[in-house]
Amino acid sequence: MDWRVTLTTFGIIFLAELGDKTQIAAMTMAAQKKRPWEVFLGASLALVAVSAIGVVIGSALGHYLPVDWIKRVAGAAFIVIGVLVLIGKF
After folding, report:
1. Which pTM does this prediction carry?
2. Distance CA 23, CA 39 (A)
3. C-alpha 1 chain-centroid distance
4. Best exposed site among 33, 40, 50, 87 by fewest CB in 10 Å?
5. What is the pLDDT along the chain (90 residues), one digit of tens a residue?
6. Secondary structure class of 24 (helix, strand, coil)
C-alpha cells in the first residue's frame, strides 16, 4: 500500500468537503433530529458509496482514456456546473 497516495487522497477530499453543502446538510440533520450518531453513520455510508462509485468509474476510465482527457473533461464539468450555479439553473 502506498501511504502517500492514501494520505494525499485524504487531504484533498477532506479539504474539498470541508464546509460544503454535504457537511452543512449533516450538521442540519444532526441538530434537527438530535440523533448525531445515526446522522454520522448515514452520512459516512453515503460518502463511502459515492466515493466507491467515483473510484470504480475513474479506474475503468483510466484503462481506456488518457488521464489528461479525464482531467480536462472533469475540469470542464466543474466549470459548467459553476456557471449553472451562478445563473441559478443548478
Report:
1. 0.73
2. 11
3. 22
4. 87
5. 899 999 999 999 999 888 888 889 999 999 999 999 999 999 999 999 999 999 999 999 999 999 999 999 999 999 999 999 899 887
6. helix
Rg for the chain (alpha carbons), in Å?
A: 16
- List phi, psi (to 5°) of 35: -130, 70
Helix axes 67-86, 36-64, angle to 10 degrees: 130
Residue 66, sorted as left (phi over 0), alpha (psi -120 to 50) or beta, turns out to be beta
Task: Determine how many CB atoms are found less than 10 A away from the CB of residue 61.
Answer: 15
Which among 16, 10, 20, 22 is positioned nearest to 30, based on CA atoms?
22
| Cell numbers that stand for 32 in this block | 434537527
